[in-house]
């Protein structure tokens, strides 16, 4: 099941960043070791009780004349309507209810998306509670009073948010069909790839209306197997400044990746791999998705017998945090090696759901421990009791030890490599959880 997406919408200065940081700072579990992934306030992974979601900030409004603010708020709200499962509309009790709030509330109400109305800066309940009731007039439900700065009311707000999540997002009738997100920088050939897949005889089927306004999911059949391709191309929205465009395309990439089983990161061979490619691939890595790097426009590269090695090495270097990623050199234009792309996607799907028996895992583990002694600290040596696989997508393992503090990142990496040597797991990240024996799961 893909994680729900929650978007924050609100006027400038109502406290969106403060709220975002409060949520992102304390309750998120992020993988911090992905180089090349800058974390600004565009998105964060939040966990509340037993629920996780992706929080996005559609932000980026310049405080300016009233008219511009309103039009930008509409734009922001539209992005939220397009991409989110739940919208958090945040207002400010100290500024009071203003006209643009009412207009945006109308828009949100018409979208029929679940909306949680939040009134911020209620630093004192006594002082402001009467003013909070005024926000009922927006007609989008009961206002929840919070103070983002003091971190009060946040739990109640999160309760309301998670209540709105779809019971089980698996109600989709296409749910057994693997979902493949095609992501990448502008102009790398994402649309060309999807068009090629749809255009050839062996691949047509239908277009199904996507969940979002301008993303179209395409159902593709290849060798009797169906796939749903999630297209993120054509993210250019007219008349937008560069920064805003970037934010929008990050949001769209994150939400597409969230829905996908496997992510095809398209890069442009004629340009070579860049930091921006690393950032985009990092979004898939952090979310534990299957990853295939499609090196496109291979037809346009002048080649000698070393070209492919040079490209491979360079990509491995820039994407060093995901050595497991599969590489395929393709041409969306000529269709070259598209069959190979499908074969690779199939293999990655299989690896994402591969389960290894505990007995077999522990044979690998004892061999690994015998070959390289676990680390020790101040006379105390790490003891590894056993390991077991507890999940898939991505394959997740728990290693039971005597003392968590003694388990170094490098030793976990060593065990990961041994597991990979034995079982491959190409194309998928692996997750390791270290637990002390006796600790509850
Ligand atoms: N009194 C009070 N002030 C708050 C609270 N939350 C945020 N603020 C203040 O409100 C101001 C705006 O907060 P931000 O979080 O930057 O607001 P924003 O909505 O992200 O603003 P933009 O980036 O312009 O869209 C800052 O000075 C915050 O310190 C609160 O709960 N109480
Ligand atoms: N030589 C060559 N050119 C290609 C190939 N694939 C795409 N192109 C060209 O690259 C340009 C961009 O292709 P698009 O498919 O529009 O790229 P995109 O990633 O969808 O771009 P956005 O919509 O901006 O995100 C076009 O001029 C294509 O003709 C390829 O395999 N070989």
TrEMBL record:
It comes from the Bacteria. GTP 1 binds at residues 10-17, 57-61, 120-123. Signal peptide: none annotated. GTP 2 binds at residues 184-191, 231-235, 296-299. Pfam families: KH_dom-like, MMR_HSR1. One of its GO terms (molecular function) is ribosome binding. Keywords: GTP-binding, Nucleotide-binding, Repeat, Ribosome biogenesis. Coiled coil: none annotated. Residues 4-169, 178-353 form the EngA-type G domain. GO terms for biological process: ribosome biogenesis. HAMAP family: GTPase_Der. Belongs to the TRAFAC class TrmE-Era-EngA-EngB-Septin-like GTPase superfamily. EngA (Der) GTPase family. GTPase that plays an essential role in the late steps of ribosome biogenesis. Associates with the 50S ribosomal subunit. NCBIfam families: GTPase_EngA (TIGR03594), small_GTP (TIGR00231). This is GTPase Der. The gene is der.
């Amino acid at each position: 099941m893909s994680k729900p997406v929650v978007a924050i919408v609100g006027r400038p200065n109502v406290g969106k960043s403060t709220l975002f940081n409060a949520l992102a700072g304390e309750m998120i579990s992020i993988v911090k070791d992905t180089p090349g992934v800058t974390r600004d306030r565009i998105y964060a992974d939040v966990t509340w009780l037993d629920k996780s979601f992706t929080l996005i900030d559609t932000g980026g409004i310049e405080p300016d004349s009233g008219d511009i603010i309103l039009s930008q708020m509409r734009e922001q709200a539209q992005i939220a309507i397009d991409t989110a499962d739940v919208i958090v509309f945040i207002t400010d009790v100290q500024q009071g209810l203003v006209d643009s709030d009412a207009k945006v509330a109308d828009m949100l109400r018409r979208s029929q998306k679940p909306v949680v109305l939040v009134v911020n800066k209620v630093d004192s309940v006594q002082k402001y509670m009467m003013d909070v009731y005024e926000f009922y007039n927006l007609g989008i439900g009961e206002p929840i009073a919070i103070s983002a700065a003091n971190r009060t009311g946040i739990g109640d707000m999160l309760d309301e948010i998670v209540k709105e999540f779809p019971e089980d997002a698996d109600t989709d009738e296409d749910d057994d069909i693997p979902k493949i997100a095609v992501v990448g920088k502008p102009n790398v050939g994402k649309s060309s790839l999807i068009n090629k897949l749809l255009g050839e005889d062996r691949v047509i089927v239908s277009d199904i209306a996507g969940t979002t306004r301008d993303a179209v999911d395409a159902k593709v059949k290849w060798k009797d197997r169906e796939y749903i391709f999630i297209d993120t191309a054509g993210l250019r929205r007219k008349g937008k400044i560069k920064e805003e465009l970037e934010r929008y395309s990050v949001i769209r990439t994150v939400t597409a990746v969230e829905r996908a089983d496997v992510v095809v990161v398209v890069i442009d061979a004629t340009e070579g791999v860049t930091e921006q490619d690393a950032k985009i691939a990092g979004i898939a890595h952090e979310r534990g998705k299957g990853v295939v790097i499609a090196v496109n426009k291979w037809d346009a590269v002048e080649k000698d017998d070393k070209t492919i090695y040079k490209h491979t090495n360079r990509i491995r270097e820039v994407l060093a945090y995901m050595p497991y990623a599969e590489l395929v050199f393709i041409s969306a234009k000529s269709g070259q090696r598209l069959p190979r792309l499908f074969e690779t996607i199939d293999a990655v799907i299989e690896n994402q759901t591969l389960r290894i028996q505990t007995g077999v895992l522990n044979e690998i583990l004892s061999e690994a421990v015998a070959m390289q002694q676990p680390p020790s600290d101040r006379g105390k040596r790490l003891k590894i009791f056993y390991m077991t696989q507890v999940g898939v997508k991505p394959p997740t393992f728990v290693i039971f030890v005597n003392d968590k503090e003694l388990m170094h990142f490098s030793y976990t990496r060593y065990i990961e490599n041994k597991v990979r040597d034995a079982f491959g797991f190409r194309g998928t990240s692996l997750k390791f959880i270290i637990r002390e024996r006796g600790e509850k799961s």
